[in-house]
Amino acid sequence: QKEVEQDPGPLSVPEGAIVSLNCTYSNSAFQYFMWYRQYSRKGPELLMYTYSSGNKEDGRFTAQVDKSSKYISLFIRDSQPSDSATYLCAIFNQAGTALIFGKGTTLSVSS
Amino acid sequence: DTGVSQDPRHKITKRGQNVTFRCDPISEHNRLYWYRQTLGQGPEFLTYFQNEAQLEKSRLLSDRFSAERPKGSFSTLEIQRTEQGDSAMYLCASSTGHLNQPQHFGDGTRLSIL
Q1: pLDDT for B56-71, tens place per residue?
Q2: Binary contact (A98, B58; C-beta < 8 A)
């Protein structure tokens, strides 16, 4: 079992839709969770950083962590064509040094 | 722009040649990381530095790979005797000196092996 699993999609939605992106992880010792957005031929850009169960909101983005289920989610409200990108979940390893990434989910928002 | 800077953006080389990439981190960040990303995959950790000390290496970092950060500022990643399988995006990231701090990425160097 991979340490972090993420459905690669692709996911296509119309403009204005609510998008739900998800990852599962295998090690209950993981504590710190991130979501990155990556546009084509660009590096990952940090969107959200959380370290506890529950929700964290930033504008149209909400990150949710459920440690009991080892499940993390990113919700995007009122999706825009500019949100079209690959979304990567990332979790710190137990040492707190290296990030372990999911494969990324490719999102396309059509106008 | 005070983000992470990587050079070159794209490198094309023949199999068997040596290549070197450079990364300039965010100036106040003393941790620097290298990752490799292949098509359709998330980035995979290669190695990281705290100041000039290389503290962790992944099993992905074969003997043909070497990374340095001589003065604790910029870093270089060298690949010797390149192979087809080395074709990937090489990403650099930096963070402050504490554990579990968010890592900020550059736009990577795309390596293509002919």
Answers
A1: 999 989 999 999 999 8
A2: yes
